[in-house]
Predict the structure.
Amino acid sequence: MRTERRSSRVLQYVLVLLIAITLNFMLPRMMPGNPLALLAGADVGLLSPEQRAEVAARAGLDRSIVDQYTAYLGDLASGDLGFSYRQKRPIVDMILERLPWTFLLAGSALLFSAVVGVALGAFSAWRRGRPADLTLLGVMIALDSLPSFWLGMLFVSFFAVQLGFFPSGGAITAASSLEGVDLVLNIASHAVLPVLTLSLLSVPGVYLTMRYAMLSVLGEDFIRTARAKGVSERGVLFRHVARNALAPVATVLALRLGLAFGGTVVVETVFSYPGLGRLIFEAVSGRDYPVMQATFLVFTVAVLLSNLLADVLYPLIDPRARAT
Amino acid sequence: MLGYRHGGLAAVTAPVERAAPVDGGARDLVEVDDLKVHFPIFGSLGRRHGDVRAVDGVSLRIRRGETFGLVGESGSGKTTLGHAILRLVHSTAGQIRFDGQDVAAVGARELRRLRRRMQIILQDPYGSLDPYLRVEAIIGEALDIHGLDQGPDRKPRIAALLSLVGLDAQYANRFPHAFSGGQRQRIGIARALAVRPEFIVCDEPISALDVSIQAQILNLLLRLRSELGLTYLFIAHDLSVVRHISDRVGVMYLGTMVEVGPAVSIYARSGHPYTRALLSAIPVPNPGAERRRRRVILRGDIPSPASPPPGCRFHTRCWLYEGLGSPERCRTEPPIPRTIAPDHQVACHFADETLASEVGVVQSDAPVQVGPLPDVPMHGAPMPGAPMPGAPM
């Protein structure tokens, strides 16, 4: 029963992935104009006739749509995401080069916002209705409505340019031969501001979820039961309330992992950080369609994986979800 | 409450009678005096709009070893009263003493000690158990907090508690969601019994259960009472259940106690129109008697406890008030409890007229309810009633 349900879940994800891939395949072929332009980038005119022939052959534009589709699936399966004629490089190399940086940003930001958001949310719920809670709540709602590019630029001008605490851009000091601890510190100092920007944008969401989840658990009867047992206020909060509140928060966090990837587009651009997000920005501004297509696919997969993660995590946290 | 006391003649002719201690001078286990529990209502911008007066000047005594039945509609304040006695809600004014100790005033450590002696069984068996804890932890947590049956005694003790309430000890490793409502309520009872309390507030422990399960749980509570010598405050919203198990009964309406007396006396000759209305809502199993008796049905909802009606709080829905041509006294003067029979007090200006009425009284000698309720065995669990192996409580 359980494995059956799990496998049907996995099947759903495979189906969604397949649909995403299919859309990705159809888009350049359905858009008006020459699909060749969309597959090779805007400036078909700059390509030599041989190159044009190669693009057409690669995409199989002369063959039937079914053949093209199976060829596309085959390419994907073998890890071939296409070729950037603009950069004259296989796209998969470009993505693999950028991916670690984005993982670094999105992962650290998620971790940071999880810790801070959960802690502050729990604190707020503990002091519910008191000045400390209401102040924090107000600050979080205000923070939640700030645009990321604005916050990022503020950080750059203040911490990097005016105070000179952190570098204003890049992921690592160029042309340096740093090693060991110095290398780590160099990378970390470059990551601080973008991570902070990304985090500040997702802390409010985590905070609000945690606070609300805890407040609603506090109203439950089993909290009354715990108090009747003689459990101390701290015991009630940690053993009963926080534990019950964590399930929705974990779901939000897992889903945010996908969103965090999306958030990197703006933040990496502001901090000229060499991640996947900036690759998208570069591809869009340079109308490098094959790169756009491939990065979109990567983002789709990231969102799907984070959803899958939420699905897998939930029953580990909530015993009720483990039931058949 | 003082304001209520300078009433008319009734105050002079019928002084409030304190319930006499049952065993020669020893204190009653629970003493509540003029208790008020008000909840503030906040509007937008955090402005206080007023108070919900959930409990508004209630006094009662619960004697050792007795079962005190507390009835009233939803919103009458009976649950709040029960919770306030255990300090699960804070009281606004008045006194609560448990075995002589002021419950509202004790510090955290003393409160914990008190909580070992007084417990609660909550109404909703689905909400009252933490879904993240196994049964073993739900029961064991209470033991751990009070340092009871630790170490090698812990496991057998939990098993003994489970079998005491008629559950298989092998269920200790399951989570609450694996159980039915009746089974969950048994877990709730085992949990309450874990600390070997003397006093248990049963907060509508059977209202949320299927009718067939209700009898099981009720009989379980009765059996535990006699085996363990427990004192109960049994809260319910209808009189038929309470009659079955109570020694004395209190009837609440809109935050006040309108009638208190021995169960027999309340059922035979109640002196309050509200109690009569509740009595007439009990189905009578004898069709002849059912046809003969006079019933009243209360109209409308209970008024808001934020702004209770002046005078007698019940006058807005009172059949007697209508029948007597709306006497002004009911609208202006809060009635003071007076004794109409031994140990039986009523807060009604027209208790004599109520006593003379036949409303709600069963006209034949057929009892309202007969004998102990049938006990239906549960699937997969031993019958309650199996003696518990060597675990004296």
In short: Residues 264-364 of chain B form one domain.
